[in-house]
Structure formats: structure tokens, C-alpha cells
Write a structure and sequence with these properties.
Helix content is about 40%, strand content about 15%. The protein has about 290 residues and is α/β, with parallel strands linked by helices. It has 2 domains: about 90 residues, Rossmann fold (3-Layer(aba) Sandwich), CATH 3.40.50; about 130 residues, NAD(P)-binding Rossmann-like Domain (Rossmann fold, 3-Layer(aba) Sandwich). Helix 2 links the parallel strand 2 and strand 3. Bound molecules: guanine (GUN). Guanine binds next to strand 4.
């Protein structure tokens, strides 16, 4: 069994990006500039955004954090989005999700200029990805595919089972892995809460991508020996022994599944660091006008 070290790969990629930024600056070009909009004080969102700001420093990017309280109106948020769309100094930006219930998330996402949508959430980017056109691919699916590439994991002709059908992970990763590309060329089965015989599908999988948000859902009896396991789960489980009061739990029963498989991602330190790093790659692409 080989552990897929997402932290190590992400550090390598950030170093590659930093080197490219140094070259850009030496050539007289501006530093890539990523902005993040954070509404309210959700613990998970605070952590993610702090990691994104730190990654910008590591890559040599400029970053701007725009904070609003949870009672911000949809109109105010749409104004911020408009300003970011029009600000030539901002190459790309994200609006951290989830947003408070009184705000229509989809309306905000659709107001983002697709050329600055480095999260790849705008329907234009989602649609372009699904037909294989240049676009911003959302960060978690892009990070997963990059891990498969960097670990030389063959995907062509393999059966990949995706657990979960979210717009952020399940649907886009299924779409990427079925594409005529490398990595890609998988036969993909997407399982969700209404799938009968889910365990049987998993047992036939060469690659399982677990993105359900249910700690320990994938157990050893669901895994074919030699399978590749990608765990996208990051559920916060209370743990008084930790300073933070919680620990991050993946969707895979790691202890019992790891001995069976050929490759597996740990939680934390697997997919998570790659997600942030893909956002940095997208921002560099945006600054270089390489997508649009
Ligand atoms: N919330 C959870 N993951 C993400 C992400 O990748 N981007 C944004 N904007 N919000 C999130």
C-alpha cells in the first residue's frame, strides 16, 4: 500500500508556482492577485480562507480578504461581486461557501465573471469542463486528478466509483474522469443516497472517490483488493483531546481499508492541501490569460 501524500505534492506544486511568479515579476509582470469574500464566522470557512491566504503568500501572490457579517444583504454582496469583476488588479476571486440562508448562493455564483471564477463554480465553467473546453476546473476535482497524475495511477479503462453527487466534487470529478484525456478514460459510476446495492458497485471499483461527508462510510468489505482510494471527506468530529476540540474525519475507515488497497489518501493531508493548491494554479492561469 502506498500512501498518497497530498501535502508533499501540494508543497511541490506551490514551489513550482512560486518559481513561475518570480519569473513573471522578473519579466516586469504583476503578481497574480486572488481575492476571497468571507461572510460570517463559520469555523470551517474561516479555516479554509486562512489557508488560502497563506498559500497566496507561499506562491508570491497578492491576496485580498473581504469580510462581511452574516447579516449582509444579497444586494450588498452582488455589489462586491460587481466591483471585483470590474477591478483590473484582481485576476481571480472566490466567494467562500456556504453563504447564510437568506442569500441565494446560485445568484451570487452566476454574477461572478467566468473569467475570474477561479473556483470553477459558474455554469459557464462547469459547462465548458463537461465538454472538454478550456475552463477553470473546480479545485477539489482538479486536485484529485492531479494527485492521480503525479502518482502515475492508470485511469484508462478503469472502473471508478464516485460516492456523492455534489456540484463541488461528485459531479465534476465524475465528468473529468470519464473524459477522453489522461487522467481520464474511466468507466464512471456515480452512487448517492438513492443508489440500491451501493456496496456491490464499490466492490467492483478499481478507484473509489468518497465524497459523501459521512465519517468512516467506506469499510473494508466494500473495497476490492488493490483498489485506489481517494477520501474527500472532512467532517469535524468532536475530540476533547485536541486543542481545537475536534478532529477531521474522512469518509473511509482508513485503518481497516488501507492494508487492502494499492493507494490511499489520508485525512488530513490527502485531498485537502491539493484543493488549495489547485486554486493557486487557477489563479496563475487567470493572471496569465491562459484560459480565456
Ligand atoms: N466551501 C467548501 N469548499 C469550497 C470551495 O472550494 N470554494 C468555495 N468558494 N467555498 C467552499
Amino acid at each position: 500500500m502506498e500512501l498518497i501524500d497530498g501535502k508533499k505534492v501540494a508543497d511541490q506544486i506551490k514551489a513550482e508556482i512560486a518559481a513561475e511568479v518570480t519569473q513573471r515579476v522578473a519579466d516586469g509582470k504583476k503578481r497574480p492577485h486572488l481575492a476571497a469574500v468571507l461572510v460570517g464566522h463559520d469555523g470551517g470557512s474561516e479555516t479554509y480562507v486562512a489557508h488560502k491566504v497563506k498559500a497566496c503568500e507561499q506562491c508570491g501572490f497578492d491576496s485580498t480578504l473581504i469580510r462581511r457579517e452574516a447579516d449582509v444583504t444579497e444586494q450588498e454582496l452582488l455589489e462586491i461581486v460587481k466591483e471585483l469583476n470590474e477591478n483590473p488588479d484582481i485576476d481571480g476571486y472566490i466567494v467562500q461557501l456556504p453563504l447564510p440562508g437568506h442569500i441565494d448562493e446560485q445568484r451570487i455564483i452566476e454574477a461572478i465573471d467566468p473569467r475570474k471564477d477561479v473556483d470553477g463554480f459558474h455554469p459557464v465553467n462547469v459547462g465548458r469542463m463537461s465538454i472538454g473546453l478550456p475552463c477553470f476546473v473546480s479545485a477539489t476535482p482538479a486536485g484529485i486528478v492531479e494527485l492521480l497524475r503525479r502518482y502515475g495511477i492508470e485511469t484508462r479503462g478503469k472502473h471508478c466509483v464516485v460516492l456523492g453527487r455534489s456540484n463541488i466534487v461528485g459531479k465534476p470529478v465524475a465528468s473529468l474522469l470519464m473524459q477522453k484525456a489522461a487522467p481520464g478514460n474511466c468507466t464512471v459510476t456515480v452512487c448517492h443516497s438513492a443508489t440500491p446495492d451501493l456496496k456491490d458497485h464499490c466492490r467492483r471499483a478499481d478507484i473509489i472517490i468518497a465524497a459523501l461527508g459521512q465519517p468512516g462510510f467506506v469499510t473494508a468489505d466494500m473495497v476490492k483488493p488493490g483498489a485506489v482510494i481517494i477520501d474527500v471527506g472532512t467532517t469535524r468530529v468532536p475530540d476533547p483531546s485536541k486543542k481545537s476540540g475536534f478532529r477531521l474525519c474522512g469518509d473511509v475507515d482508513f485503518e481497516n481499508v488501507a492494508p487492502l488497497c494499492s493507494h490511499i489518501t489520508p485525512v488530513p493531508g490527502g485531498v485537502g492541501p491539493m484543493t488549495i493548491c489547485s486554486l493557486m494554479s487557477n489563479t496563475l492561469l487567470a493572471a496569465s490569460d491562459k484560459v480565456y
